[in-house]
Task: structure prediction
Amino acid sequence: MAGSARLLSAESINFLHQPHILVPQEPLEKHSHPRLYTRLSAYGLGWTVQDYDGWRRIGHSGGVDGIRCRMEMLELNAGAVKVQTNFEDRRVYAPCSTRC
Result:
């Protein structure tokens, strides 16, 4: 929302977050922790769509000129958790992603 004006409808946001392209899975042994293994790995429209320990996880990352950013949203039964960070070191991706 921008002030009181809605920029995107709930239907549009749901469409952006739906899996459109499936991403091949990496074997479990390639992950630093079993919880990082995902049964669903896909790409929505600008968003990664995965599961984390049975919950749907939607994220986006990017970077420019030494700055990297990552946003992850975890949809839970009672709501959602959103984590947004800015950092320069690419290694920070490793704990929160199955791919760097």
